[in-house]
Amino acid sequence: MAERWRRPIVPLEISQSREAIVTADGRILRVPVLTLSEEDKERIRLGYACAKCLRPFERAWPERCPDCGAPVRREQAAYFAREYDRDPVRLGPSTTLAHERATLAERIAKEKEAKHGHNTSQRD
């Protein structure tokens, strides 16, 4: 079994922000937005992974990331605060089970009303 620290950081979702970079040859590159698990964000916050390329480290806060060269020890805390320390992103249904239960009777009544109204219009 591989060491626990080697477990890769895998984004839950990758989307594009409205921000873009225009290259010298005119290409437009959208800035990616990564949605990470709370555990993976904590690994980055504590310096056990690179905030830029997501490479895990055996020891926290190396001087530089061995893969991308990012200045982890000097700049990662500020980079993390800018890029990852945001309001949580909710994945999955936008409603809760409690909300679904609370509105179930109302939805059933509306469906019956719609069905009844539909049947009435067919008889005319």
How would you describe this protein?
The chain folds into two domains: 4-92, no CATH class; 93-124. The protein has three helices and two strands. It has helices spanning 38-45, 72-83, 97-123; strands at 13-22, 28-35. The protein has a two-stranded antiparallel sheet. The model has no long low-confidence stretch (mean pLDDT 84).
Topology:
Blueprint: E1 13-22, E2 28-35, H1 38-45, H2 72-83, H3 97-123
Antiparallel strand pairs: 1-2
Total strands:
2
| Poorly predicted parts | none
Our count of domains comes out at: 2
User: What gross morphology would you assign?
Assistant: elongated
Please count the helical segments.
Answer: 3
Average pLDDT metric: 84
Distance between the termini: 72 Å
The SSE string, one letter per element, is EEHHH
- Class by helix and strand content? alpha+beta
As laid out across the biggest beta sheet, the strand order is 1-2
In what range is the share of β-strand residues?
Answer: 5-15%
Biggest sheet layout: 2 strands, antiparallel
Q: Residue share in helices? A: 25-40%
Features:
elongated, 2 strands, 38% helix, two-stranded antiparallel sheet, 124 residues, 3 helices, 15% strand, alpha+beta
Task: Give a short summary of the structure.
This protein has 124 residues and is α+β, with helices and mostly antiparallel strands. The chain has two domains: 4-92, no CATH class; 93-124. It has helices spanning 38-45, 72-83, 97-123; strands at 13-22, 28-35.
